[in-house]
Amino acid sequence: MYQPSEATVGRARIAGRAAYDRLVAEAEADPGAYWGRLARELLAWKQPFTQALDARRAPFFEWFADGTLNASYNCLDRQVENGLGEKTAIIFEADDGAVTRISYQDLLARVCRTANVLKSLGVGRGDRVVIYMAMSIDGVVAMQACARIGAVHSVVFGGFSAQSLRDRIADTGAVLVLTADQQVRGGKQLPLKAIVDEALGLGGCDSVRHVLVTRRTGGAVPFQAPRDLWMADLAAAQEPVCEPEWVDAEHPLFLLYTSGSTGKPKGVQHATGGYLLHAALTCQWTFDLGPDDVFWCTADIGWVTGHTYIAYGPLAIGATQVVFEGVPTYPDAGRFWKMIQDHKVSVFYTAPTAIRSLIKMAEGNDAVHPRNYDLASLRILGSVGEPINPAAWEWYHRHVGGGRCPVLDTFWQTETGGHMITPLPGVTPLVPGSCTLPFPGIDAAVVDEAGNELPWGQGGILVVRKPWPSMIRTIWGDPERFKASYYPEEFQGRYYLAGDGAMRDKTTGYFTITGRIDDVLNVSGHRMGTMEIESALVAMTDLVAEAAVVGRPDDTTGEAVCAFVVLKRPLPSGDEARRIAEQLRNWVGKEIGPIAKPRDIRFGDNLPKTRSGKIMRRLLRTLAKGEVVTQDVSTLENPAVLEQLGQPY
Ligand code: ATP
Ligand code: MG
Fold first, then answer.
1. Which atom of ligand 1 is nearest to the CA of 411?
2. 611 lines ligand 1 (CB under 6 A)
């Protein structure tokens, strides 16, 4: 266990376990009063709400429903009114290293111009706008501009194919697509506008009236008048002032499709008031962001992390943040560390997949090891997206955080809007591999299939028993799927079902995420999380870079363990592969027990991942069964590895 240091506790907004316990007790006693108090303290309301929670239409819960506000006003105008106009809102670093800073007042002016452009094209309250852009100030401006006029944005990650983009445009019924001519990543120019054209050409996108294009590279792109328009031409004619559209708290702020790790992506709908509250609150309590911090969240605005912890949260509390266009490995794998050094980043938030790949690179090339950079500005580190295995956690803590920065393993989902289970830096002693305790007000529990709470120490299903403000409101256009997915009959619609398995520690009550519900293995009657076996494999730090474990049906044992492994050495084959496989099996047997020994082990240069960097376990399950992959692989980043992983040892 790592205790919070005196320095961390000394400046933390929530300091000490007693302070945490008081908040938890306040929330438990009266959730409406608790969240209502915070919503009044953290957000500026045009029309104050009179009731915090309305549960009459449960599970379609409503929060602050008779209050009105505007998200963009809360993120921008409010800061300017509070004297932060000249404070840097965004430090943007381009792929080639060029740095642009924009102040709150300049960001506000840009958002207003863009909002006026949208209005001039007839876009208004409730209209959907798809944003297909790369990491840029323009991307954040586009999102904020939609929020300003009450339009509902749906950001599609700039790495998605025309088909994925088309599906999302068609599902949202967007009236307009905002994009850029091209994007630049890792020294390469990649298309954006051309892919929008291709997507619209696939059909089903008749709702789209205009494609609004910003310039990034100035490269030649196909252009179709009168449908296509250059943002710069239109913006020049607009005033840098735009009265915000005051919307009800329940007005949808955005739609965002989930990563697709487990199946067809779902169009998650978030509401303005509750979402913004949690975005702001978690920036203050989890990241402890204060006036002098420089925050950097490395997520893309195409994922929920880039929404909550780039486009909304940091701005809603007037923080300074870094936005990065490029990739962590260009021009070399020291890029993150160099940027932390250059911008004096104090709070850094990234994903386990990035950490694991940077570990591998740093160990292969000492020049890009974090020890070569001055990372003294760091005070808090965060992780999100997947479970972070203890070996990666320890490395992050030691080599990036210098042993002094807490590593916050934040568990949450697109559907939850913000952190659900997470350490608070000034409160929670840390245990590598555990996301520790629920955020105050989040009533998380581990239950069995019948919905009964399980004793600590027993693995089960993660649920949230009480509604909370930033929860998903519905799946766009499919309320039945919303109910079936998140408030299923099996729990009589009482609990929000996260879809993840979890276990609470016997003595501390700390939560560990054990994997997706369907990732819990049952080998000869023994239930175990795939995560545990993965952690054991990755703990062989000099041999294994990354590992994923799934089950496959087996006649004698019910299920058999299959491990997919990326080594820190060239891809082995034949006898060498068999020898390493045996070594790994023995290690797992020793670490966890013979029952957990993988039946087959498969090696690859990489693992199949979604565009958000998550391991696609559903694909691995198909491979483990020896079946042909027929699933939707549209969100797969590196299809080539499927073949290597077909060979069991
Ligand atoms: P889909 O819902 O389409 O299958 P997805 O669940 O990967 O995709 P996201 O909402 O981006 O889409 O990811 C949320 C999931 O990521 C969580 O349900 C959990 O499985 C995993 N996750 C996120 N953070 C953590 C964490 N700190 N520890 C463990 N798992 C995490
Ligand atoms: Mg999910």
1. 27
2. no
Q: CB of 422 within 8 A of CB of 439?
A: yes
Which of 422, 439, 441 is closest to 380 using CA atoms?
A: 422
> For 14, which DSSP code?
S
DSSP 571: P
What six digits make up the tokens of 512? 């560990």
CA–centroid distance, residue 258 to ligand 2 (Å): 6
Contact call for residues 448 and 461 (beta carbons, < 8 A): yes
Assess contact for 549 and 515: CB atoms under 8 A: no
Residue 530 Cβ inside 6 Å of ligand 1? The answer reads no
Cis amide bond preceding 265, omega within 30: no
Task: Using most ligand atoms within 8 A of CB, pick from 411, 476, 481, 635 the residue to mutate for ligand 1.
Answer: 411
Q: Determine the 3-state secondary structure of 403 from DSSP.
A: coil
pLDDT tens readout for residues 552-582? 988 888 889 999 999 999 999 999 999 999 9
Closest residue by Cα to residue 24 from 209, 215, 259, 285: 285
C-beta separation of 523 from 533 below 8 A? no
What's the token pair of residue 449?
């299939």
CA distance 299 to 314: 13
CB atoms within 10 A of CB 92: 20
230 falls in which pLDDT band (50, 70, 90)? Answer: very high
Q: What is the 3-state secondary structure (H, E, C) of 62-76?
A: EECCCCEECHHHHHH
Query: Which SS3 state, helix, strand or coil, does residue 399 take?
Result: helix
The bound ligand whose nearest atom lies closest to the alpha carbon of 517 is 1
- pLDDT one-digit tens code per residue, 426-461: 999 999 999 999 999 999 999 998 889 999 999 899
